[in-house]
């Protein structure tokens, strides 16, 4: 059986990769994928703690997290399409001109 610490290290690595993607990239699609990585890291944590404690509560929360991620992708793709339609680019720094 794999110890829970291994899952937590994997989760921390995936979260750090997602955080790095958010902080360094300007492309909206990569930004969206980085947020998905961070949400998946949280789901790995939920499942790891569920495995450690022997109940299914963490797995239920992970399912809710997946539903949240699906809703986030649907809204994010809509925002990216509007961004591309207005600026013909998916650079998130150009969206500051949409304020006024």
Automatic annotation (TrEMBL):
Its record classes its membrane topology as: Multi-pass membrane protein
Family annotation (InterPro entries): NADH_UbQ_OxRdtase_chain4L/K, NUOK/Mnh_C1-like
Q: Where in the cell is it found?
A: Membrane
* A GO biological-process term: ATP synthesis coupled electron transport
Question: Which molecular function terms from Gene Ontology are attached?
Answer: oxidoreductase activity, acting on NAD(P)H
What is one term from the GO cellular component aspect held by the record? NADH dehydrogenase complex
Taxonomically, which superkingdom?
Archaea
Q: Which residues cross the membrane?
A: 6-23, 30-49, 61-84
- EC numbers for this chain: 1.6.5.11
Q: Which UniProt keywords apply?
A: Membrane, Oxidoreductase, Transmembrane, Transmembrane helix, Transport
Which protein family is it in?
Belongs to the complex I subunit 4L family.
Q: What is this protein called?
A: NADH-quinone oxidoreductase subunit NuoK
- Organism lineage: Archaea, Methanobacteriati, Methanobacteriota, Stenosarchaea group, Halobacteria
